[in-house]
Amino acid sequence: MSRERQINIKTPAQLRIMREAGRINATALAAVRERLQPGVTTADLNAAAEEVLKSCGCVSPFKGYGRPPFPASITVCINDEMVHGVPHLKRKLKEGDIVSIDCGTFFDGFIADSAFTAGVGEISPEAAKLLQVTEGALFAGIENMRKGKRTGDVSAAIQNYVESNGFHVTREYTGHGVGKEMHEGPQVPNIGSAGSGVSLRPNVTIALEPMVLIGTHETRVLPDHWTVVSADGSLTAHFEHTIAVTEGEPLILTVL
Ligand code: MG
Ligand code: MG
């Protein structure tokens, strides 16, 4: 596990800003979802998200992130590509593809981070099951985002949900605290043991993001230094929400 970053408890005013960032992020993702058709390029999808962000006076924290600087506002991953796919003018969607879109919104000093995977036209029953299981794993994790639970409870819920459905969950890429920074503490791996890890406190905000693979959990990074693919070429999916822990029910910030 990498070095643990600081956990920042948000004030009610900061949570309201993050909720608005989440709403804008959901609007951008909805605009992308509407454009998922054969023949559309992954650069078109990026443009659709950017149009929404721009109209709200926002930018994506993804643009310029890392080394080499990420060149777009969303990541787009097709089929065996799991995360961090770079949009391209020549890359077109095809009937039967599954496409993962990850988008971030930087609004009034705070970040919201969310992702979904969807099919282009008709998809195979196996691909449809992969999407269902990955989204189900996200919600199994969210169910544990409660005061007094630990990050290990969330991780274990995600891992158990995925593995009991016969799929594999990534080891290297994790959920994370989010706020002024895209990656804050606590880190929330997609595998773990119940009862371990950091205790969850009200007003901590975390992006949970199970990444699920059909074949094995192993991945590799393409020569573009960004795109992460399944090592065996099998299909992968990714769902993510930014969630606030409260005194009661988990609050999903990245919905309309
Ligand atoms: Mg994300
Ligand atoms: Mg994230």
Task: Kindly name the structural category.
Answer: alpha+beta
Q: Which fold does the CATH topology refer to?
A: Creatine Amidinohydrolase
Strand content: 15-25%
CATH architecture: Alpha-Beta Complex
Helix coverage percent of residues?
Answer: 25-40%
Cα(first) to Cα(last) distance is 33 Å
Quaternary structure type: single chain
Overall shape: it is: globular
In short, what is this structure?
This protein has four helices and 14 strands. It has helices at residues 12-34, 42-55, 125-142, 151-164; strands spanning 74-78, 81-83, 98-107, 110-119, 168-169, 175-177, 184-188, 205-208, 211-213, 219-221, 228-230, 236-238, 241-244, 251-252.
Your description of this structure?
It is a single chain. It contains four helices and 14 strands. A five-stranded antiparallel beta sheet has the order 7-6-8-13-14. Strands 1-3-4 form a three-stranded antiparallel beta sheet. It has a single domain (12-247), classed as Alpha-Beta Complex (Creatine Amidinohydrolase), CATH 3.90.230.10. The longest helix has 23 residues, at 12-34. The protein has helices at residues 12-34, 42-55, 125-142, 151-164, and strands at 74-78, 81-83, 98-107, 110-119, 168-169, 175-177, 184-188, 205-208, 211-213, 219-221, 228-230, 236-238, 241-244, 251-252. α1 (12-34) packs antiparallel against α2 and α3 (125-142) runs antiparallel to α4. The chain is α+β, with helices and mostly antiparallel strands. The structure holds magnesium ion (2 copies).
